[in-house]
Design goal:
Residues 759-788 are annotated as: Disordered. Helices cover 56% and strands 5% of the residues. By secondary structure, it is mostly helical. Among the domains are: 19-74 and 602-758, Rossmann fold, CATH 3.40.50; 187-340, no CATH class. A hairpin with a 4-residue loop joins strand 2 and strand 3.
């Protein structure tokens, strides 16, 4: 008799690591089981398993059928955990500026143009810090302490300002002392931003990624390793610390310039050479401090090729302290007695906003020149706005900062002015002229946006009509239903609107730049009084301009109120907080390379978590692992796989679905997720599969062809809905899933099995360790035998 064939060996340990997408979810939903247990991690981010699978590695029979043990990584609390995260809405301009840093066109090496791009974005970010601090100074120093406290009518209506009223003649009635006291408000704001940045720096940027042969700068075939695969990419501890010190110093110096500059200008026009020399000395020290801050910001960018554990002690320790000392000296200087000083009009220094606006415009235009040069070296049709995505987003960050600053100033001015109309009466309370001109540009911008919005609406309707026969052809043999077909075709057409976002961003950014330039010119040439920017022209033009300014002022104020209201609601409501979290899921994926006061980068915690888990599990069990990421989770999964050593990466498969890797990240961040980096990831991975639907507004194909014996990454588009009409298996209408429920598709489990089968066989499992309960019983029995 022939010998019996040997029994097939068990497939060995297998793990499916699930990573959720934007908005978050619960472990129970991810694992489809109400009983889950946390196996590693903390309350912020952790790995969960079903209770029955807690010790699956010690039970080899669980792997006999080849199915992997599911394990869920929940990271939603990194972006929408507690109510204080809702306050991050106020940091939106900083976050948008940070995004512009990562939208650089690709380059083969670290050229001078690449370094110049980073320097320009960091300077744009620095201007936003100065703008925010200047807006706080405008409200506290100019509108409140200078204008309102110096006005008999305003101070009389505000009893809490009585001790600073110029009419009372008290010790605080002198303008310099009023400014010195009001400087506490912007100083406290800068201090709060420093505290929040320092606190999140120690919690996020200090997470060390694992080391391995990924420390090399080149791939095995000699190509330069993609940036996300370098060991220091997710370790921005040094850069954020240095930028935090520089931006904190810039905030203190801005407050010092507002307080001390007003007093110095008065002393130059008054008698007394000693005071004048003191004022010039103070302003010279502030100028030197500004040069030091600019040098620290421009001097050095990110270090990604190695783990940089150093901290620039000189900048981190001395720069904020020295600037705070200058602020104290400016406050003391402004508090010196000046009996003849009276506050009239606006606070001297209104040109500050004009200088900031002009500087931001020059920086954005310079950034556009550098981006165009980089894009021409390596052009690609999928890159948004022909490489100008970064400058366009930087312009939006400046616009957001201007709108928020103008909104606060306009609302506070209206509140302090009471029933009076800005520009009327003897002592009106009003913000700088430039803010009034910028407010008048808001209605014009909204009118301009109506045109592309109408074009997109018409184009979407026509696309839905063209897609109707295509949809019916895909469900061949089904009885046509006009309503069902129209709904499916409309969903597909609306999903395609995502690809039109670059055009909208380009139009808004270009219009904002032109309107901002017009507002700047108008503010310079207008004959103005506080709060009234349009005088001396044709009556019709003047009336139209004033109407636009009034409407824009109310729109800015309404927008800011809605902004704060949304943040307050998100602070109390978990569902609203989750909506805010979705915004941060997309915007705070990237490290803080440009602005240290931006919301922290959750990926600097999530990517090391995933990398450590994959490396430790495969090293301990020798098993096969498939990391399964949905939506934003697929971006985290890809970033974590990039960080693995080559030996570990051979035992890992990547399954992505509803993934924005190419559709959003590849187009907007081509230097990091463009065709080159994604192609390198495809070559380095043992196997990768991507699932997508045409009804998905976020996910899409990654467009990586078969290469080197590896099949094409993209699966053909999944049907959505699965069934067109009613059948015996589906007696009720099936929903159009769009971006959700990919795991419910039958193809999902099949593709996961194919990926696991393509991985190398699992290494022999180690001897099963006793469960904790068994170890406890054995120790008790041993103790009993010893005592007997």
């Amino acid at each position: 008799m022939p010998p019996a064939p040997p029994e097939p060996s068990p497939p060995g340990a297998a793990l499916e690591l699930l990573v959720h997408g934007v908005g978050g979810t619960t472990p129970e939903q991810m694992l489809d089981d109400p009983r889950t247990v946390r196996v590693t991690g903390d309350e912020t981010a952790a790995m969960y398993r079903r209770t029955a699978d807690q010790h699956a590695e010690a039970e080899p029979e669980r792997f006999a059928d080849g199915r992997p043990v599911p394990e869920a990584y929940c990271w939603c609390n990194l972006t929408s955990g507690n109510g204080s995260r809702a306050l991050w809405l106020l940091l939106l301009p900083f976050m948008v500026a940070n995004l512009a840093h990562w939208m650089r066109p690709p380059a083969d090496r670290q050229t001078a143009a690449v370094r110049l791009y980073g320097v320009l974005v960091r300077l744009v970010a620095l201007s936003l810090t100065v703008l925010l601090t200047a807006a706080a100074c405008e409200v506290a120093l100019d509108l409140t302490a200078w204008q309102c406290a110096g006005s008999a009518r305003c101070a009389e209506e505000r009893s809490w300002l009585g001790f600073m009223s110029a009419a009372q003649g008290g010790w605080w009635s002198q303008p310099g002392r009023r400014l010195a006291l009001a400087a506490l408000v912007p100083t406290a704001l800068v201090g709060l931003l420093w505290y929040l940045s320092n606190r999140t720096w120690s919690a996020y940027e200090a997470q060390r990624p694992p080391r391995g042969d990924g420390d090399a700068d080149a791939t095995p075939d000699g190509r330069l390793r993609p940036a996300l695969g370098r060991p220091g990419f997710w370790y921005g501890r040094r850069l954020v610390a240095r930028l935090r010190a520089a931006h904190t110093a810039a905030g203190f110096l801005t407050v010092a310039a507002a307080v001390g500059g007003a007093a110095a200008r008065y002393d130059r026009n008054a008698t007394g050479a000693g005071r004048e020399v003191l004022g010039w000395t103070l302003e010279g020290a502030l100028f030197l401090g500004a040069l030091a801050v600019t040098w620290v910001v421009c001097r050095r960018g990110r270090s990604e090729r190695r783990l940089d554990n150093r901290v620039d002690r000189a900048a981190v320790n001395w720069l904020p302290g020295a600037s705070l000392a200058l602020l104290v000296l400016a406050v003391l200087y402004a508090g010196l007695p000046r009996p003849g000083w009276r506050s009239t009009g606006t606070l001297p220094g209104d040109p500050t906003f004009s200088v900031i606006t002009l500087g931001q415009g020059v920086l954005v235009l310079s950034l556009a020149v550098v981006s165009t040069r980089l894009h021409r070296r390596a052009p690609h049709s999928r890159t948004v706005l022909y490489g100008l995505g970064g400058p366009a987003v930087a312009m939006l960050a400046c616009a957001l900062g201007g709108v928020m600053s103008g909104g606060v100033a306009q609302r506070v001015a209206d509140w302090l002015d009471g029933p009076a109309t800005p520009g009327a009466g003897h002592d009106p309370i009003g913000p700088p002229v430039l803010l009034s001109w910028q407010a008048s540009a808001i209605p014009v911008l909204l009118l301009l946006l109506l045109v592309p919005a109408a074009v997109l609406a018409v184009r979407t309707a026509l696309a839905a009509r063209r897609l109707a026969p295509v949809v019916e052809a895909e469900y061949e043999g089904e009885q046509p239903d006009a309503v069902r077909t129209r709904r499916i075709a409309g969903t597909r057409a609306c999903a395609a609107l995502t690809d039109a976002a670059p055009v909208i961003v380009g139009i808004v950014s270009g219009a904002t730049l032109l309107l901002g330039a017009g507002a700047l010119v108008g503010a310079w040439v207008s004959e103005t009084v506080p709060g009234r920017a349009f005088t001396g022209g044709h009556p019709f033009v003047e009336s139209a301009a004033e109407a636009a300014q009034a409407l824009g002022s109310w729109l800015i104020g309404l927008g800011f109120i809605l902004f704060v209201t949304w943040g307050r609601r998100a602070y109390r409501d978990a569902s609203a907080r989750r909506t805010v979290g979705i915004l941060w899921d997309v915007g705070t994926f990237w490290p803080r390379a440009a602005h240290p006061f931006a919301p922290p980068c959750y990926a600097e915690r999530a990517v090391p978590d995933l990398t450590w888990r994959m490396a430790s599990w495969t090293g301990r069990t020798g098993g096969r692992l498939v990391i399964s990421g949905h939506s934003q989770g697929s971006v985290l999964a890809a970033a974590a796989v990039w960080q693995l050593s080559a030996g570990t990466r051979r035992r890992v498969a990547l399954l992505t679905y509803g993934s924005p890797l190419e559709r959003l990240y590849g187009r907007w961040f081509p230097a990091y997720f463009g065709p080159g980096p994604l192609g390198a990831l495809h070559r380095e991975l043992h196997c990768w599969r991507n699932l997508w639907r045409r009804t998905d507004p976020i996910g899409g194909p990654v467009n990586l062809p078969a290469e080197g014996g590896k099949p094409e990454v993209d699966h053909r588009a999944l049907r959505d809905p699965v069934v067109y009409g009613r059948t015996h298996e589906h007696p009720l209408p099936e929903p159009i899933l769009g971006h959700s429920d990919y795991q419910a598709a039958p193809v999902f489990a099949r593709e996961r099995t194919v990926l696991l089968d393509r991985l190398p066989p699992a290494l022999p499992l180690p001897a099963p360790a006793p469960l904790p309960e068994q170890r406890s019983d054995e120790s008790q029995g041993s103790s009993g035998r010893s005592s007997g």
